[in-house]
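Lecture notes, continued. The same structure-token format from the folding unit now serves as the input rather than the output. Read the line below as a description of shape only.
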């Protein structure tokens, strides 16, 4: 299987796409104004303790107070051991009090109306290991199945425990790695932890103590164990940063990284832009003529399978069976592409034969095997529904790119003015590279034009200098927020 990483970088936004055999699988988007918080460590202040929920709200300097549940508090703080050896979990009120300073790490970004979720069980990832400063155990990734290899890795890391505080989790990428490389990772994590503790002592309340790597370097670190054949980056500066990072920490990946200087936008190579647009819609067409309807709400996501124009060539049961098999593959891809999480209900077309039901379920499980998010699939219910959960640690693609529509009062979504601004800037570059342009005029909704004039004025000025063509803006009151035209002169 051929897998590539395509990385598109602009001053305002970084986008990373994984492509398997020419088909888009996943997309990550990080904006300079809204960087992800997962992995960041803060010195927070407890502002409210909720005994009835076994939780507390902690102020860490974000728009909303973050949430800390007792289950996410480290064992050393919440477990009391009696003289006779009995263990008792303390209540939240015994662990935390209002006004108390606490060192916390974000494990879930703010989602919708919910604040970030925190833990005091800090973890620091590296190439092969995850350090757990407040834990003394050593764990090995469940994806490493060879028992001898698991024991070898565990023994190497355990030998290093005397040299540093805490425990470790051995990541999947460590499989087959020599002992000296693992020990270098241990020393690297030890230095980071010492530096983090030093900064935490000097930090004031609500201050960030440690930030995770930016999206590009984080992606290289986390996907380095996968069979990625080529990594293409359209920014020369980011390309050099990625090369330096891989040279120091991931030398085996250095040869896979290349700079993409092409005139054609990098995301146009495999129609990534088109796939992103399709992923914002509710309907997904299947090759057979059937289709999926994906309805994402705050409480859950439902996916309905329909035969559509597919009539098959034999019996109705066989037509339904083939549609459901194809839908199982498409559902697994859409869950990754749209980054759908939480409770997911799959409504396959009703099948009569028990063997067909089991084959469709197995096809879904097989298609989900490469999903990096943790998931759980339940058997078909009496109503013919498949219930599943998928771990959600960041916003879905729709929530990143769109906002609730004020016109339809929340019944649908439209792209944000910021998203449309970026699309306009990309369209301008595309048009200028294709045609001999003396000047151009952008027609767009007034909200979009206002953002281009105000918040995006610096970016627009840089774009004018870059293309050497004057750009004129014109607000159109009849245009909706997603509509725009680039008129060439």
């Amino acid at each position: 299987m051929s897998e590539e990483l395509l990385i598109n970088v602009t001053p305002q936004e970084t986008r990373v796409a994984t492509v398997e055999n020419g088909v888009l699988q996943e997309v990550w988007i990080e904006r300079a104004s809204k960087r992800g918080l997962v992995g960041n460590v803060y010195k927070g202040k407890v502002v409210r303790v909720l005994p009835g929920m076994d939780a507390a709200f902690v102020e860490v300097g974000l728009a909303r107070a973050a949430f800390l549940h007792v289950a996410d508090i480290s064992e050393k703080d919440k477990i009391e051991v009696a003289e006779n050896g009995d263990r008792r979990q303390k209540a939240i009120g015994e662990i935390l009090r209002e006004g108390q300073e606490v060192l916390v790490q974000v494990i879930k970004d703010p989602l919708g109306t919910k604040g970030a979720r925190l833990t005091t069980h800090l973890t620091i990832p590296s190439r092969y290991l995850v350090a757990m400063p407040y834990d003394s155990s050593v764990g090995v990734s469940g994806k490493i199945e060879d028992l001898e290899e698991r024991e070898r890795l565990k023994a190497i890391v355990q030998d290093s425990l005397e040299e540093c505080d805490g425990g470790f989790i051995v990541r999947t990428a460590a499989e087959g790695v020599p002992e000296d490389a693992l020990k270098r990772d241990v020393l690297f994590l030890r230095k980071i932890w010492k530096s983090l503790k030093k900064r935490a002592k000097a930090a004031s309340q609500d201050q960030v103590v440690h930030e995770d790597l930016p999206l590009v370097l984080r992606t290289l670190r986390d996907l380095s164990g996968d069979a990625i054949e080529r990594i293409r980056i359209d920014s020369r500066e980011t390309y050099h940063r990625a090369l330096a990072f891989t040279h120091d920490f991931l030398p085996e990946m250095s040869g896979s990284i290349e700079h993409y200087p092409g005139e054609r936008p990098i995301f146009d190579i495999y129609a990534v832009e088109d796939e992103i647009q399709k992923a914002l819609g509710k309907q997904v067409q299947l090759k057979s003529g059937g289709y999926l309807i994906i309805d994402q709400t705050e409480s859950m996501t439902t996916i309905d399978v329909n035969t559509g124009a597919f009539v098959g060539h034999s019996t109705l049961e066989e037509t339904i069976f083939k549609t459901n098999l194809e839908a199982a593959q498409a559902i697994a891809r859409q869950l990754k592409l749209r980054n759908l999480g939480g409770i997911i209900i799959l409504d396959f077309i009703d099948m009569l034969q028990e063997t067909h039901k089991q084959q469709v379920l197995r096809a879904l499980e097989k298609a989900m095997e490469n999903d990096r998010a943790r998931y759980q699939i339940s058997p078909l219910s009496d109503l013919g529904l498949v219930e599943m959960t998928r771990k959600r640690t960041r916003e879905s693609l729709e929530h990143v790119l769109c906002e609730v529509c004020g016109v339809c009062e929340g019944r649908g979504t439209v792209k944000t003015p910021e998203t449309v601004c970026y699309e306009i800037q990309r369209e301008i570059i595309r048009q200028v590279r294709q045609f001999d342009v003396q000047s151009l005029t952008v027609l767009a909704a007034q909200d979009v034009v206002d953002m281009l004039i105000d918040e995006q004025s610096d970016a627009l000025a840089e774009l004018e200098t870059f293309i050497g063509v004057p750009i004129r803006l014109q607000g159109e009151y009849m245009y909706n927020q997603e509509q725009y035209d680039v008129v060439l002169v």
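Point for the exam: The mean pLDDT is 87.
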